[in-house]
Amino acid sequence: MADPDPVVEAVFDAVAATAPTIRDALPGRRVESGAENPSGETVLAGDVYADELLLEALSAVEGVGSFVSEERPEAIDVGGAVGEDGEGAYAVAIDPLDGSSNLRSNNAMGTVVGIYDAPLPATGRDLVAAGYVLYGPITTMVVADGSGVREEVVEREDGSEGLGDGDDAGVTRSVVADDLALPDEPTVYGFGGRVPDWPDAFREYAREVEDELKLRYGGAMVGDVNQVVTYGGVFAYPALVDAPDGKLRLSFEANPIAHVIESMGGASSNGSGSILDVEPEGIHDRVPLYVGNEELVDRLEAALDEE
Ligand SMILES: O=P(O)(O)OC[C@H]1O[C@](O)(COP(=O)(O)O)[C@@H](O)[C@@H]1O
Ligand SMILES: [Mg+2]
Ligand SMILES: [Mg+2]
């Protein structure tokens, strides 16, 4: 197994260091910020706060060259050093608050991170690591960093108040499960979008899956994907009749989640092949996302192929 990449580990340190601060800041930030993001969605004050905090934390990581966020039109050059071999520093793609419409209804949300060894837009094959924070009853972070996939509990150190500096980050990361693999026996499914907006082939596939698995859908991709990570199954935000590219963003959401799921022995698809092979045109491209146990994703591709 390769040695841990110090830049990758420093990125996850920085993301973990922000997590308790983001969480603490949410109660007062459930209102609209008055702005729209590059995808044309209303941005909540919580989205803006998380985005700014993560920019600050990740800019301080040596070896991070650019910060690319769902909430910003362009990549931000954060000046990370170029390596001795002439390779560029990593580009870190962030969905600062995933599932932020759940802020009003006080349900699960998260932060998604993808670390690319290429300037964005890039394919998911350029990811060196990816993961997500889940703000559930417990704050957890799932990390796929090339040494396997693990789940950590992220907690503020007693008495710590802020982000802290360097070694004094003010948080502890405790590994609670490592070498995670998708359970062999799938149990759950969660599909986004409205049923009338689903193409016929996907609706038929969904009918079959409903007979086999239990519905778990909470409206935040990270929460719904974490159900699949924990219990096995399939998550989809499918192509819709009037939105063939679905809703989720390739760089910030689909690629990092596909990297995590494939690193756990599962499969990802855009409907015809691995998400990680999708060639992007821009950093805010959307893509249909299907992830989970291989057999369920294979069946999905076969069902869509028949259309
Ligand atoms: O409300 P819908 O249409 O089911 O959409 C839910 C999806 O949209 C998202 O909230 C989009 O993410 P953001 O909150 O980061 O924009 C996903 O987390 C989730 O899977
Ligand atoms: Mg999101
Ligand atoms: Mg978001």
Automatic annotation (TrEMBL):
Amino-acid biosynthesis found in the keyword field: no
Gene3D superfamilies xref list: 3.40.190.80, Fructose-1,6-Bisphosphatase, subunit A, domain 1
Location, primary (coarse class): cytoplasm
Superkingdom as given in the UniProt entry: Archaea
Pathway as given in its UniProt record: Carbohydrate biosynthesis
Residue ranges that the Swiss-Prot or TrEMBL entry lists as coiled coil: none
Protein family membership: Belongs to the FBPase class 1 family.
Name the record gives this protein: Fructose-1,6-bisphosphatase class 1
Species per Swiss-Prot/TrEMBL record: Halorubrum halodurans
Native organism taxonomy: Archaea, Methanobacteriati, Methanobacteriota, Stenosarchaea group, Halobacteria
